[in-house]
Every structure is written in C-alpha cells, then in structure tokens.
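Thread: "does anyone have the structure for this chain?"

Original post by V.I.:
We have the sequence but no experimental structure in hand. Need at least a predicted one for the grant figures.
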Amino acid sequence: MERRAPEPAGPAVAPAGDGPAGGAPPAVLAVVGAGPRATGLLERIAANAPGLWPAERRLHIHLIDPHPPGPGRVWRRDQSPLLRMNSMAEDVTMFTDEASTVRGPVRPGPSLAEWAAQFSGDGPRYAPYAEPSDPEVLAELRALAPTDFPTRRVQSAYLEWVFRRALSELPPSVTVEWHRTTATAVTGPPDGPQRVRLADRSDPLTADLVVLAQGHLGAEPSGRHARLAAFARRHRRFHLPPEFSSDADLSGLRPGEDVILRGFGLAFVDLMVLLTEGRGGRYRTAPDGTLRYLPSGREPFLHVGSRRGVPYHAKTRYRLRGPRPPFPRHFGPDAVAALLARDRPLDLRTDLWPLMAKEIGFGHYHELFHGHPERTALGWPDFLAAFDRLPWYSAEMAALVASAVPDPADRLDLEALDRPLDGLSFPTPESFQDHLRDHIARDVARREDPAYSADLGAFLALLSVYGQLPPLVASGRLTARSVADGIDGWWHGFFSFLASGPPGFRLRQLLALSEAGVVRFLGGDLRVGTDEETGTFTATSPTVPGHTVTATALIEAYLPAPSLERTEDPLLRALHRGGELTEEVLSDATHTHRSGLLSVDPGDARVLDPGAGGPHPRRIALGAPTNSRAVAAFARPRTDSPGFRQNDAVARLLLRALAAGEFGAASPAGRPGAGVPRPAGPA
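Reply from O.Q.:
Generated one for you, tokens below.
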C-alpha cells in the first residue's frame, strides 16, 4: 500500500502494513502524544533515518492522541478564532537552520510566515501542498504579513502541515499509525517489550520503546484552590481553578457579574478576549486614533491583579537595526563550566544572575550602539572593552553606562523592569487606574517604536540565557532553594514577563476595556480572601491601601502548576501511583523542593524508574511534564533551539537502539550525558 497524500480536512497517517513486506517483524515505537513535541521528534526521525536506519528493516510508529497530529490539544483548530499567538508569524518555526548545532542533518524548512506566503502567491509552494479547507483560515493566510500575530487556528494549520511533511519524508520502511484515543497505562519490564493500554480497546499495543510526549497537562485543584472551590460550591458562586483558557467553561459567569481575576499574563489576556469580544463586544477606532470598546451588555466586570500588578510587557514588533549580537558572550559554555568547577553549592542570585544579567545587557547595548549610534557617546570597541572587564553590579559599570548612554531611557534597568509598582501606592482606585493606563500605553508605544530596538537585543539575549541554564540545573549544584524560588519561581516569571507578553494590540484593547469600565486594575501583591457571611470573594492590594473589592466569582488566570500527584493524564497518574516514575525532589540542609515534574536522565531523557534502579531503558519522556523544564516545541528561527537539539538527540538514540535491538541505558553517544541538552524552559 502506498503512503496516501493527505486530505485537506486533516492529516492522513499510513496504517500498519506499509513499507517492505516480509522479513523480520518490524521494530515498534509508541509515542504518547501527537502534538508539536511529537511532530518535532518525527521530523528529526525523518531527517536522521537515511543515515541511521537500515533500508531493509521495518519500523512502525504508533502515535497516540485523541487530538489531531501536528497541533495536538493546545493548538487544535477547534478553538475560538479570536485567540491569537503571542509571536509574529516570522518568529515561529519547526525546522533546524544554519544556526542549529544538532548532530543530525540540518533540514531547513519554512517559518510560519514563509509557509503562509505560498497561499497568496508571494512565495514558493511547499510539498505536500494543500490549501486549508477552512475558508476563514485560508483568507487569513493569504493576507498574513510576516509581522502579524496569527490566530491559533493558523498555527494549527501550519503544525498540521509540518506533520504531513515529516510523514512524507520518512523512508518507505518506516510507517506511522495514529490512534485517536488516550493512552491510559504502560507496563512492561526494563528488559522486555512495553504494553501501552488505550482507552478505546481491550488489547494493548506492544512496543520496543515508548516515548511520552503529552505536552502541557492539566491538574486537579489542590490546597487553596480546593478550599476556594469548596467555598464557591457552598455559596453557589463561580470559581475557576488554573485551567487552559481555550478549554475553560465560562458559561456560568453572568452579565454584569463582578469577577476577580488573579493573574495578569497570557491566560488573563485570553480570558479577557473570550469574556468581551467573545460575548459580542466590538472595538472601533475613534477620530483621535484611540481605540474604543462598545459593550454588548453580556460582559461581566473584570477586576484584575497579580504579584506585579501590571500586564506582561508587549511583544516587540520591529526587527534589529544593527547586526545580530554574537551570543553567548558572558553566559555561555565557558561561564557554565567555570561555575560548575566551584567547590560549593551555587546560588542563582549570587552566582548566576550577575552573569545572566550581563549577557542581557550585552544584547541590549550591542543593538543600541550598532542600530542607534547617534544616541551613544562612546565608540563601540571602547565601550565593549570596558563592559567586558567590569562586573554587571558595580559602580564602575554604572558610571560607564551613564557616560556612554546619555539618555536614561536607553539604559537597561532590569530591576525597574521586573517590579514597576514597587514602592508606589495610590490614595484612590481611580488614581491607580490612571497610572496603570499610562504605564501600559507607554509600554506599547515603546515596543512598537523601532527607535527602541535595543529592547529586542535584550530579548534575544534572554533567549540565549535560557538555553544555557540546563546543564546548571541538571548538575544538582544549585541549592534546592535556588531551584524552587529562583529557577521555578522568580526566573520563570521574569522570563515570561519580559519575553512572553501579548501583542501590542491586545494591550490597546485592554486600555479600551479599562476606559469603558469593563476592566478594573487591582494592583500588585494581590491578596484574595473569602467572606463567609456574604458568600463573596475579596481582593486587596497594598498598591491602593484600604481598598477592598468584593465579587461573586473568582478566576485563577494562570496555567496549572505541574503535579504528578494531581495530573489529569491517566498514564502518568498510573505510573506515579504504581511507583514506576520519580518526581523531581531537590533537597539540601536548608530546603526541600518538590517540583511536580517527572525526573528524566539528563543525558538521554529516559524516565527514572525506582523499580529499575535508574533510567528505564525502554521509556523516554520529553517536554513540559519533565524536569528538562518544558523545552519549547517550536522556536524563533536562527536561535539554535534547545528543543530541536533534544528532539534530534532522542531521534538518533531511538533509531540506533531500535536498529540494533539493544535497549540499554547508555546515552546516544555511548557515554552518560552525551546526547540530550537540558534546557530549562520555553523560548
């Protein structure tokens, strides 16, 4: 049977039986999850197979996911057309490129913007070519500019095509079968076949190796969320624990109801959209150019606050004016090696952050001096020589920057960026509304003005820093407190705040909603409570001392924290309860940190199994649920994505092991830690 050409309505997957007939039974790989992570792994299998997979040997791959291969659950087409990405089309790719340091073949492919251009006739056609069947998606693709922020349904179409392309590039001896269901369990000894049980069939699949790639997972409410849910049930109030916005049931919120939203990041932005435009509201541009919101009357009133009390910074919408900074410079492999050579435990703030901050500063000033030299008072070579020599946190560095960069608006102040409301308080709620509206308007204007492209230099440096952290986290040399409060706490939040904000137009919509009275700002260090007498939720903030907001609904506007104990994924839950996997627990004399993440071997991503006494030789786990810290499944072009490096290393491991029929716990190059990078989070 020939591998069929995909139909526009959805990806087609070759059934079992394709490929050369006869001979030994095929090697079998089961991949649980078929979203972007699994798709990226499949692309790397296709790239590496010509050099590592014997042409005469058959390999059959089971993909197990109730959602469509490519987009998976998070990026599925079946979600509101109002929801958008927080990246420009030109900044999204699933392919390796000239900057990639993968060990396997580099196989360039189009970014989302380049792929979309074929539908308007502005670019080459990419095989396999098929126009999306949804007319609204096709119309958006035809009009999409590289600097537009696409809808998630457009990203779904791109990911579906990437999956189709990977499928078409597999050699004839490799076949793929999609099981549109949920994997509920995996059993099998370390030295024998693995059996994967599916929700819709009694007989399990049998595989030589299993890869867990479920992506981002939900979790049952715990602790305070469970108590708040119980309060809401007692008083017949609305409470939404941390949830993926596109999956949330918001129908219980009444028009005009007061709702407290705790969280000011991307989840809040999605909820804001669904509860305003999603309920029939409209925007129009006033004669003075400002945006105005026209309510439908079906919106609730949204009261929003968070730890910082301000929304994430808007995404930049410009390109570098100067050459790309040569990262890394101050926080790269040499710096990491020097840190690991120290004979004491490492602290994030004391040992790592000064070097990380200096790398971010290098990116910022490299772009300022090269893209806007008229705003500097010193030549770049002289500035760089002094910058390289001086510690980031020193009076000498502050003096250098002050003398070389006359305008304070061009200087990088990471602490002021991190907590813009620190030390501020306002006498009335209205005075705070005015202040925060001004803060948001200035942030959007700066992020869309190419005169401030130095901010993009800092952003790119931030991505580079993220990619250098994994060996330090995986080494076990950081104190437990530094991982808990630093890496998983402050650093993750700081990175997201600066690098993962919404498009500028979303923040202009937020301003319009604020002016219309649909959204009210609560402030920073938000405290949420309950009042049993009135059956209401309460919110207070030191930003507006003495002011309390009461509401009949509460939304936790952020994603669920990782938790193996409370995960909604039945397979991981079964393995955890059966003692067949290990939660990451970091402990030292002063602190114990239970991250809720699945522990994998840092060398080859094999699941650490207490029963096997180490890495399970036949089970591998990738992505969000693991302590590789949620390596991003897609990335910005030319950033040497850690996720792509991990996919490549694991693909090569799988092909070698399956071809040889040897499933020992050695890493891809035959020595511990050789093959899989250990990134710390999304890029």
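V.I.: this helps a lot. Confidence is low (pLDDT under 50) at residues 1-12, 14-21, 665-683.
O.Q.: and The first helix runs from residue 36 to 52.
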